[in-house]
């Protein structure tokens, strides 16, 4: 961390951007079928403009049998009819751009749907055929090939291999309806570069890359022997996570985007153990940014947060990449609930918002966090659609709890999610009546009002966004840092009121996540921004 102020005025937008994640099934439904869609998103773009974000990342909206809510793509160059048409996607892009919002689409390169034409052709073709060579087909072990080729397990539970009718097995690190592609095959490489161009030519501003750490597999396919966790961050030498060969893929992609005008961006979903491993994906000729899961996973205590922040900035600045700060997404328990739920979780989430938006770099907002939505923990099993729920007999796979449709207005479900009274694909809790956009809009103490104020200040204050930070000495559960030339963020992570550091004694309070004490102390779980 150096101490030069702010970012250069001509720095690319993504170094500072606040990017709002839209999970299309659950954002806004235009036609009343209970599932969100692209026209629904279009209608709500002014809301996002008013919220004050810079860009949207939209989770997959491609044709898909929806075995994994669209992360099982059957055609990378079209739009799933439930969500709309390619013309809707074009209109969304045009309208977003007119409002000054960038648009990032989700790219799923590790696997296709089993209903993709390539996989259908692979099943119809014999072992050893070029059609099968696009995927990871192998003969089984055992006398009749009845034992899977190795002991790898699916991220969603159960074996990572499924047997085709003729006896060969295919690899799927996720659901059996998500066969893994073979990235050593030049045809796969060429196809994805062509898919990138398809969307770049339509004018999109970037790609979020699904499972970016998973594309390369050890050709020897050694057994894991139960030693290495599947879902979480990878360890060095793992046969299918974070292997060196993936970097060549991203160098090729970077050559594609670099040939386009405008600052097109890649953001990697890279689950690895350390910020140093992450930084390798962000070298100058690879991806531009990646989600910072170290920060998302940090506990709510000053030491963990500070360590996560320092380690991230140190590792990423070494390769010249900006950090990104993320608290929630469609795969993790919403942070209000993670931070303790109820009032406590709510205050901590408010404090975390001001911390997140004051840190140097970009930030992500997952739809609904600006409303303070909690995780829905009591969805009935028969309504759950997370494939991991089925594959683990209900022991895992609770991601539907953070995917419940957004409450926009009114006193009862569907809370304006769709027209009329038709119910959404997952039921909304009745007490979300208090959390609708409509309710919060008129309430200056609401979570929505906090996000709007913070995002407005973030746009106005030259210190915020990309740049550097320096810690101010504090004790106990207080964190404080300066963004030069004249901004300080103080976070009371603890439970008791604490005075801000001397550095802000003569400063002016710009915003606090909750009201400060009359003597200026920060209540527990409160953050404040000061001009100094
Ligand atoms: C990560 C995505 O965020 C998640 O939702 C999906 O299930 C897996 N990748 C598999 O594509």
From TrEMBL:
Pfam family, one: Alpha-amylase
A GO MF label: hydrolase activity
Domain Glycosyl hydrolase family 13 catalytic: 21-399
Gene3D superfamilies the record matches: Glycosidases (3.20.20.80), Oligo-1,6-glucosidase, Domain 2 (3.90.400.10)
Listed InterPro entries: GH, GH13_cat_dom, O16G_dom_2
Keywords: Hydrolase
Transmembrane segments: none
Family in the record: Belongs to the glycosyl hydrolase 13 family.
Protein name, as recorded: Alpha-amylase family glycosyl hydrolase
UniProt lineage: Bacteria, Bacillati, Actinomycetota, Actinomycetes, Pseudonocardiales
